[in-house]
Amino acid sequence: MIPWVNKVIVVTSCEDKLGLTVMELLAKSGMTVIGFAKTEFIVNKITEKLKICTPNDLNGKIVLCKCDIANLKQLKSAFAKIIETYGGVDVLVNNAHCNIDCSACTGELCDFKKVIDININALIVCIRLAAGNMIERQSRGHIININNLCAYQLPEDSRKNVFIATKAAAKSINEILRHEFRYLKANVKVTNVVCGNIESEEKYDFDEDNLKLKDVAKLVKLILNTPEHVQVHEILLDSCE
Q1: Which helix (H) or strand (E) holds 179?
Q2: What is the C-alpha separation between 198 and 240, in angstroms, rounded?
Q3: d(CA 150, CA 184)
Q4: What are the Cα distances from residue 51, in Å, to 2, 56, 172, 210?
Q5: Rounded to whole angstroms, how far apart are CA atoms 142 and 34?
Q6: How much is the CA Rg of the chain, to the nearest whole Å?
Q7: How far, in Å, are 77, 81, 238 from residue 84 at the CA level?
Q8: DSSP strand E in 12-129: where?
Q9: Domain ranges, ordered by start, for the chain
Protein backbone atom coordinates (compact mmCIF):
# COMPACT_ATOMS: atom_id res chain seq x y z
CA MET A 1 0.00 0.00 0.00
CA ILE A 2 3.05 2.29 -0.09
CA PRO A 3 1.88 4.29 -3.18
CA TRP A 4 -1.40 5.06 -1.39
CA VAL A 5 -0.04 6.09 2.01
CA ASN A 6 -1.40 9.55 2.93
CA LYS A 7 -3.57 9.50 -0.21
CA VAL A 8 -7.25 10.40 0.01
CA ILE A 9 -10.02 7.87 -0.44
CA VAL A 10 -13.75 8.63 -0.44
CA VAL A 11 -16.19 5.90 0.63
CA THR A 12 -19.69 6.91 -0.46
CA SER A 13 -21.47 5.29 2.47
CA CYS A 14 -20.15 4.59 5.94
CA GLU A 15 -23.67 3.87 7.16
CA ASP A 16 -23.41 0.13 6.53
CA LYS A 17 -20.98 -2.41 7.98
CA LEU A 18 -19.15 -2.90 4.68
CA GLY A 19 -18.34 0.80 4.38
CA LEU A 20 -17.06 0.88 7.95
CA THR A 21 -14.94 -2.24 7.46
CA VAL A 22 -13.35 -0.86 4.27
CA MET A 23 -12.69 2.48 5.96
CA GLU A 24 -11.00 0.92 9.00
CA LEU A 25 -8.79 -1.41 6.95
CA LEU A 26 -7.57 1.31 4.58
CA ALA A 27 -7.03 3.81 7.40
CA LYS A 28 -4.85 1.21 9.14
CA SER A 29 -2.90 1.01 5.86
CA GLY A 30 -2.06 4.70 6.03
CA MET A 31 -4.75 6.31 3.87
CA THR A 32 -6.86 9.35 4.69
CA VAL A 33 -10.36 7.87 4.50
CA ILE A 34 -13.41 10.10 4.12
CA GLY A 35 -16.79 8.47 4.65
CA PHE A 36 -20.11 10.00 3.65
CA ALA A 37 -23.15 9.69 5.91
CA LYS A 38 -26.62 11.03 5.17
CA THR A 39 -27.38 12.88 8.40
CA GLU A 40 -25.61 14.45 11.36
CA PHE A 41 -27.25 11.86 13.60
CA ILE A 42 -25.64 9.04 11.62
CA VAL A 43 -22.28 10.83 11.62
CA ASN A 44 -22.39 11.07 15.43
CA LYS A 45 -23.52 7.46 15.76
CA ILE A 46 -20.66 6.20 13.58
CA THR A 47 -18.18 8.42 15.43
CA GLU A 48 -19.07 6.70 18.68
CA LYS A 49 -18.87 3.27 17.04
CA LEU A 50 -15.40 4.01 15.65
CA LYS A 51 -14.16 5.07 19.10
CA ILE A 52 -15.06 1.60 20.36
CA CYS A 53 -14.01 -0.50 17.36
CA THR A 54 -11.00 1.29 15.92
CA PRO A 55 -7.62 1.24 17.65
CA ASN A 56 -5.89 4.57 18.25
CA ASP A 57 -2.73 3.55 16.37
CA LEU A 58 -4.08 4.09 12.85
CA ASN A 59 -1.36 4.85 10.34
CA GLY A 60 -3.85 7.02 8.44
CA LYS A 61 -7.05 8.66 9.59
CA ILE A 62 -10.82 8.52 9.24
CA VAL A 63 -12.90 11.63 8.55
CA LEU A 64 -16.69 11.54 8.51
CA CYS A 65 -18.63 13.89 6.25
CA LYS A 66 -22.35 14.65 6.37
CA CYS A 67 -23.50 14.25 2.77
CA ASP A 68 -26.69 12.91 1.22
CA ILE A 69 -25.37 11.54 -2.05
CA ALA A 70 -28.83 11.79 -3.63
CA ASN A 71 -28.53 15.58 -3.22
CA LEU A 72 -26.44 17.05 -6.05
CA LYS A 73 -25.76 20.30 -4.20
CA GLN A 74 -24.46 18.45 -1.12
CA LEU A 75 -22.29 16.16 -3.27
CA LYS A 76 -20.67 19.06 -5.10
CA SER A 77 -20.06 20.87 -1.82
CA ALA A 78 -18.56 17.77 -0.15
CA PHE A 79 -16.11 17.07 -2.97
CA ALA A 80 -15.16 20.75 -3.22
CA LYS A 81 -14.38 20.81 0.51
CA ILE A 82 -12.31 17.62 0.27
CA ILE A 83 -10.31 19.01 -2.65
CA GLU A 84 -9.81 22.33 -0.85
CA THR A 85 -8.70 20.62 2.38
CA TYR A 86 -6.66 17.68 1.10
CA GLY A 87 -5.69 18.74 -2.41
CA GLY A 88 -7.69 16.10 -4.25
CA VAL A 89 -9.28 12.65 -4.32
CA ASP A 90 -7.11 9.66 -5.20
CA VAL A 91 -9.48 6.71 -4.70
CA LEU A 92 -13.28 6.44 -4.78
CA VAL A 93 -15.17 3.44 -3.43
CA ASN A 94 -18.80 3.52 -4.53
CA ASN A 95 -20.50 1.24 -2.02
CA ALA A 96 -23.72 3.18 -1.37
CA HIS A 97 -26.87 1.47 -2.60
CA CYS A 98 -30.64 1.54 -2.23
CA ASN A 99 -32.03 -1.98 -2.00
CA ILE A 100 -35.76 -1.62 -1.39
CA ASP A 101 -38.51 -3.85 -2.72
CA CYS A 102 -39.58 -2.40 -6.03
CA SER A 103 -41.05 -4.30 -8.97
CA ALA A 104 -40.93 -2.78 -12.44
CA CYS A 105 -44.61 -3.55 -13.05
CA THR A 106 -46.19 -2.88 -9.67
CA GLY A 107 -43.68 -0.77 -7.71
CA GLU A 108 -44.33 2.74 -6.48
CA LEU A 109 -42.97 5.50 -8.71
CA CYS A 110 -41.44 7.26 -5.70
CA ASP A 111 -39.51 4.04 -4.96
CA PHE A 112 -38.25 3.96 -8.55
CA LYS A 113 -36.77 7.42 -8.00
CA LYS A 114 -35.08 6.47 -4.71
CA VAL A 115 -33.40 3.41 -6.20
CA ILE A 116 -32.29 5.14 -9.40
CA ASP A 117 -31.12 8.29 -7.60
CA ILE A 118 -28.73 6.32 -5.38
CA ASN A 119 -27.72 3.39 -7.58
CA ILE A 120 -27.25 5.24 -10.88
CA ASN A 121 -27.42 9.03 -10.60
CA ALA A 122 -25.30 9.37 -7.45
CA LEU A 123 -22.88 6.73 -8.73
CA ILE A 124 -22.23 8.70 -11.91
CA VAL A 125 -22.00 12.08 -10.16
CA CYS A 126 -19.50 10.77 -7.59
CA ILE A 127 -17.42 9.28 -10.40
CA ARG A 128 -17.57 12.55 -12.34
CA LEU A 129 -16.48 14.65 -9.37
CA ALA A 130 -13.68 12.28 -8.31
CA ALA A 131 -12.39 11.33 -11.76
CA GLY A 132 -12.55 14.92 -12.98
CA ASN A 133 -10.20 15.91 -10.17
CA MET A 134 -7.87 12.97 -10.86
CA ILE A 135 -7.65 13.85 -14.55
CA GLU A 136 -7.16 17.56 -13.85
CA ARG A 137 -4.26 16.79 -11.49
CA GLN A 138 -2.88 14.14 -13.90
CA SER A 139 -2.49 11.90 -10.88
CA ARG A 140 -2.81 8.18 -10.35
CA GLY A 141 -6.36 7.28 -9.34
CA HIS A 142 -8.64 4.32 -8.84
CA ILE A 143 -12.42 3.96 -8.79
CA ILE A 144 -13.88 0.81 -7.25
CA ASN A 145 -17.58 0.15 -7.73
CA ILE A 146 -19.15 -2.36 -5.35
CA ASN A 147 -21.77 -4.23 -7.35
CA ASN A 148 -24.14 -7.11 -6.70
CA LEU A 149 -24.20 -10.62 -8.15
CA CYS A 150 -27.88 -10.19 -9.03
CA ALA A 151 -26.73 -8.16 -12.06
CA TYR A 152 -25.43 -11.49 -13.45
CA GLN A 153 -27.42 -14.20 -11.72
CA LEU A 154 -31.11 -13.35 -11.53
CA PRO A 155 -33.13 -14.79 -8.66
CA GLU A 156 -36.13 -16.86 -9.78
CA ASP A 157 -38.54 -14.76 -7.75
CA SER A 158 -37.60 -11.23 -6.74
CA ARG A 159 -39.43 -8.11 -5.63
CA LYS A 160 -36.29 -6.06 -6.26
CA ASN A 161 -36.38 -5.93 -10.04
CA VAL A 162 -35.64 -2.21 -10.30
CA PHE A 163 -32.64 -2.67 -7.98
CA ILE A 164 -31.42 -5.49 -10.22
CA ALA A 165 -31.79 -3.28 -13.30
CA THR A 166 -29.72 -0.51 -11.69
CA LYS A 167 -26.96 -2.98 -10.82
CA ALA A 168 -26.89 -4.18 -14.43
CA ALA A 169 -26.56 -0.52 -15.45
CA ALA A 170 -23.66 -0.09 -13.01
CA LYS A 171 -21.89 -2.97 -14.74
CA SER A 172 -22.17 -1.14 -18.08
CA ILE A 173 -21.06 2.16 -16.53
CA ASN A 174 -17.91 0.48 -15.24
CA GLU A 175 -16.95 -0.82 -18.70
CA ILE A 176 -17.76 2.51 -20.37
CA LEU A 177 -15.52 4.30 -17.87
CA ARG A 178 -12.61 1.98 -18.61
CA HIS A 179 -12.79 2.93 -22.29
CA GLU A 180 -13.23 6.64 -21.48
CA PHE A 181 -10.12 6.67 -19.30
CA ARG A 182 -8.16 4.93 -22.04
CA TYR A 183 -9.37 7.47 -24.63
CA LEU A 184 -8.46 10.37 -22.32
CA LYS A 185 -5.08 8.76 -21.54
CA ALA A 186 -5.91 9.15 -17.86
CA ASN A 187 -3.91 7.26 -15.26
CA VAL A 188 -7.15 6.12 -13.59
CA LYS A 189 -8.24 2.53 -13.11
CA VAL A 190 -11.80 1.36 -12.60
CA THR A 191 -12.81 -1.98 -11.11
CA ASN A 192 -16.21 -3.62 -10.74
CA VAL A 193 -16.31 -5.70 -7.54
CA VAL A 194 -19.33 -7.97 -7.80
CA CYS A 195 -20.45 -9.55 -4.53
CA GLY A 196 -22.92 -12.17 -3.50
CA ASN A 197 -24.76 -11.56 -0.26
CA ILE A 198 -22.58 -9.95 2.37
CA GLU A 199 -23.15 -10.72 6.04
CA SER A 200 -25.85 -8.54 7.59
CA GLU A 201 -27.49 -7.97 4.21
CA GLU A 202 -30.74 -9.55 3.03
CA LYS A 203 -30.41 -12.93 1.33
CA TYR A 204 -31.48 -13.76 -2.19
CA ASP A 205 -33.01 -17.18 -2.88
CA PHE A 206 -29.99 -18.30 -4.91
CA ASP A 207 -27.42 -17.43 -2.23
CA GLU A 208 -27.75 -19.33 1.01
CA ASP A 209 -24.47 -18.27 2.59
CA ASN A 210 -23.08 -14.79 3.06
CA LEU A 211 -19.65 -13.34 2.37
CA LYS A 212 -17.67 -11.95 5.28
CA LEU A 213 -17.23 -8.20 5.48
CA LYS A 214 -13.50 -8.50 6.12
CA ASP A 215 -13.07 -10.61 2.96
CA VAL A 216 -14.62 -7.94 0.75
CA ALA A 217 -12.57 -5.22 2.45
CA LYS A 218 -9.36 -7.23 1.99
CA LEU A 219 -10.20 -7.63 -1.70
CA VAL A 220 -10.56 -3.85 -2.07
CA LYS A 221 -7.11 -3.46 -0.50
CA LEU A 222 -5.69 -6.19 -2.76
CA ILE A 223 -7.01 -4.42 -5.87
CA LEU A 224 -5.35 -1.17 -4.77
CA ASN A 225 -2.12 -3.11 -4.22
CA THR A 226 -1.85 -4.24 -7.85
CA PRO A 227 1.09 -2.82 -9.84
CA GLU A 228 0.40 0.46 -11.61
CA HIS A 229 0.46 -1.22 -15.04
CA VAL A 230 -2.11 -3.89 -14.04
CA GLN A 231 -5.82 -3.22 -14.61
CA VAL A 232 -8.34 -5.40 -12.76
CA HIS A 233 -11.52 -4.94 -14.79
CA GLU A 234 -13.91 -7.02 -12.76
CA ILE A 235 -14.03 -9.56 -9.93
CA LEU A 236 -16.97 -11.80 -9.00
CA LEU A 237 -16.87 -12.72 -5.33
CA ASP A 238 -19.15 -15.19 -3.58
CA SER A 239 -19.15 -17.63 -0.70
CA CYS A 240 -18.17 -21.19 -1.58
CA GLU A 241 -20.02 -22.76 1.36
Answers
A1: helix 161-183
A2: 13
A3: 31
A4: 26, 8, 39, 27
A5: 15
A6: 17
A7: 10, 5, 39
A8: 32-37, 61-66, 91-94
A9: 2-237
| Beta bridge pairs of residue 94 | 145
Distance CA 104, CA 226 (A): 39
Mean pLDDT over each residue of the chain, to the nearest integer: 88
pLDDT digit string (tens) for 232-241? 999 998 887 6
Compute the C-alpha angle 207/208/211, nearest 5°: 75
**How many angstroms separate the CA atoms of 41 and 66, rounded?**
9
| DSSP 8-state secondary structure symbol assigned to residue 140 | -
Would you state the pLDDT for residue 54? 63
Question: What is the tens place of the pLDDT at every residue in 141-180?
Answer: 999 999 998 888 776 667 788 999 999 999 999 999 999 9
Residue 110, pLDDT score = 87
Cβ(9)–Cβ(33) under 8 Å?
yes
| pLDDT for the residue numbered 206 | 42
136 or 40, greater pLDDT:
136
Is the alpha carbon torsion for 52, 54, 56, 62 positive or negative? Answer: negative
Asked if 67 and 78 touch (Cβ cutoff 8 Å), the reply is yes
Closest by CA to 131, choosing from 81, 102, 76, 92, is 92
pLDDT: is 197 or 224 the higher one?
A: 224
What's the maximum distance between 2 C-alpha atoms anywhere in the chain? 52
pLDDT score recorded for residue 44: 87
For 2-237, CATH gives 3.40.50.720
Q: Would you give the distance in Å from CA 81 to the centre of its chain?
A: 19
Produce one character per residue of 151-160: b if its CB has 16 or more CB atoms within 10 Å, e if not: beeebeeeeb
Amino acid at 182: R
